[in-house]
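FAQ
Q: What does a multi-component entry look like?
A: The components come first, one per line:
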Amino acid sequence: MYHDNDRAKLFSRRAMMLAGGKATLVVGLAARMYYLQVMEADKYAMQAEDNRITTRLLAPPRGLILDRNGVAMAINQQNYRVMVVAEQTPSLDYTLDALAKIIPIGESERARIHKEARRRRRFVPVSVRENLTWEEVARVEVNAPDLPGIIIDVGQSRYYPMESLGAHILGYVAAVSENDLTDDPLEELPGFRIGKGGVEKVYDMALRGRAGTSSLEVNSVGRIHRELERKEGEPGIDLNLTLDIRLQQYAAQRLGDESAAVVVMDILTGDVIVMASTPSFDPNSFNRGLSNDEWKDLTTNPRSPLTNKVIAGQFAPGSTFKLLTALAALESRDITPDMRVLCTGHMQLGSIKFHCWKKEGHGSQDLISGLKNSCDVYFYEVARRVGFEKIAEMARRFGLGTQTGIDLPSERPGLIPDRAWKRKALKQPWHPGETLINAIGQGYVTATPIQLAVMTARIANGGYAVVPHVARDQIIEKSVHPRPQPEWPSLEVSRQSLALVRKGMFAVSNEPGGTAYKARITQEGMWLSGKTGSAQVRRITMRERESGVKKNEQLPWKERDHALFVAYAPEENPRYSIAVVVEHGGGGSAVAAPIARDIMLEVQKRDLARVSTEANGTPEPPPDFRRF
Amino acid sequence: MLNLPRMPLRLNRTEMSLREKLLQLNWSLIALLAAIACIGFATLYSAAGGSLEPWALKQIVRFVVGLSIMIAVAMVDLRFWVRNAYIFYVVAAVLLLLVEIKGTVGMGAQRWIDLGFIQLQPSEIMKITLILALARYFHGATLQEIGRPLFLIPPLIMVLLPAAMVMKQPDLGTAMMLVMSAGAVFFMAGVRMWKFALVAISGLSAIPLAWEFLREYQKKRVLIFLNPEDDPLGAGYHITQSKIALGSGGLFGKGYMGGTQSRLNFLPEKQTDFIFTMFAEEWGMMGGLVLLALYVMLVAFGYAIALRCRSQFGRLMALGITTTFFLYFFINIAMVMGLVPVVGVPLPLISYGGTAMLSLLFGWGLVMSAYIHRDMPISRRGMHDD
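Then the predicted structure of the entire assembly, as tokens:
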């Protein structure tokens, strides 16, 4: 027997110590539990919810775009697409083989599907094909039992039923790029499209609407268990334009194959009724996806189909600019309307000879006949007396040289030159000859067709600074407000001067011998008054003048004159102004004026103002600026 | 008891009948074990989303088998274990070596040995046989002998050999448990305090060296333990999600079968190592404390039995096994709460898994055997005292 007693005592003592150590550790565990589950519970509860709940955005339908009569120009179409869920297939290839018997699937498509399926989790649907026809959908549905893992999904895609008609005003939608990112959560939706041009861009935020949300319970790999909550979004607002689609169509047809721009606006309200730029493009093609060739065609075409020439085409205004030269001279009282100038076909200034478009000269000209015949020599003399600074100032007052402020993107400012500009841009002094050249709308002066239409509108409405727009209503943020009664500021131009210029325009179109007499409107009450312009795009050399200036038809397209025409109608009670520019079209009187006449006639026949007034049942307000 | 005359008590007899032994079974201990196991079944049922398959039912079967083994072990005469302690130890060591040579690779580490009908984890067996062998070694030792440093060399080798092999598998958690539970036996046997201090100090200074021996994933686990938020979606994912689950459970939990973290699979290994997290997510801190209390009660039983034992072998073995059990639940719970690195120690009697369940119940069978034979004096070599 050995001394077990000591060992037992020691054992008991040490057991107590060990137990004490263990008790401390257990208390530590309990304290940690308290820390995690009581003190930090809120933080972890939140993190657990974050883990559990995924919020998905529900894309609201994009607002429609309608013309002034409610004809749809941009709508949303249901886009049927066929998707495959890898998890539900025996093998991806098996299902795709089966599907390929019903709808064709190319080799590259198949490779893409495999690639996407590998990248995503097995329960996430992968798009096989989009934009299925109804027949294809039916075929897939009928064969559904043989197509494990295939589902048909309905999305929405933008569709422009008018195709190329009005495309420049509408713009188009396309996928969001890095630069477009704002803080709108919608942009993160796969397949979300935003407005990339025209009103689709300007009113993009309003058209988008507000995203709805769907709270989903998901597991750790993102599989959806159930929907916890659903908040429907707000659809985008429908946008009414001031355009009249029938007139737009007529104008586009009338321009035909020309590279041209035409704009018709209401001189009182600023409503743009027609805005056509040819050639045009089909905005649907952007949504569909353009092939490389198509894109190359669009961008390298010399007639630039993607450009809205009405607001982004800058042309020398040619003789249409003489209206402003006349106004500047009258307002500054540097000439009287009765002042006569003898046109001999040219004017000598220093050592340089300035030619009139009519080689043999117009003889004695006053203001009205100078406008009627578009006599260059008469306006050379006027410009010499007035100086270009005053003319430039008048031009700016009537809307040239800066953007008009129309609600469309990418508007260009054109150019009204002056001494300061030339010094700065070209580092050269102003030559006296440049006053003459620019005063007849050549040289440095450029303007966009919308500026010319605005200029004409301001002449016709009695000198009020009307600003054009294409959206019927005022869109502030995401809400629609009717436009208030327009109160355009006065341009401070005397009624007498405006009346004289208009008298000249009347003569151009309605007096025999006027440059646009052949393109007059003969229907009673619809007469128009206008001004022609032919902007030279090449330099005519001395030698050519001697041997005879070449006719436009003899020149290659690129060297032909731009044909311009501005007008307002009806003569007695003006309501509409028009600007037509036919790029390299030849003469204003021969090419542009007839187009303007036909369109203006059509516009007046539809007489939108009257139609809308009758529809509203309220009498047209008699604004004091309509007549002087 | 030396001075007491031999008492003619029935329990003091050197031989007991099976009937007598059965009557001696500690039913409260069995009830406690069953209570903890039932919590396990319920949690596994919830982990499977309200189904007995695939875990709960198998676990119940294992528990029943384990319980039978436990009772059978309890019936075996304590002296049998004393006599054969070294043999069992050597067998376990050979098995460990076998896994090293020709083990099945499972879970990224060599831990299993496939005997056809059961996949053996020799490291689990070693946890028990090591304690048996150490208890046997110190059973016959006087305090004077224990005081001699040379006397401590053989048991140290007995500990370090299997610990090194387990470490090499690599299984850091089990190696640590072997060393710590053996340390408890050394301590209880009466090894001087300063010797522990010496070992602790030299151990700490060896940390940089040991670091070099760690596998890449073990280093990563330690580093992640030190700062789990560094990599919440990568390697720190487990511990971060575990803390979220625990914390979001709050005081009273999300309700049975209502744990979002576990139900939605954010919680990894929810049926095995991280089962405590799931339990505490559903039952909250209150549930966690109840479970902790049950474990503490079980450990207290172990202590009571050890203190009540007449033989040094019984005392040391009961306390060693109790300590192993304590280490199981302490390390597991501390691990899922982010207090210690993730080392792969299951929650005893609750985590899904066969070997741990069987070896733990086997261990409790030994403790119970110590209880049944508490008054049996045992000679140095395992014969009854004469």
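Q: Is there any commentary attached?
A: Sometimes. For this entry: Chain B touches chain A through 46 residues (CB under 8 Å).
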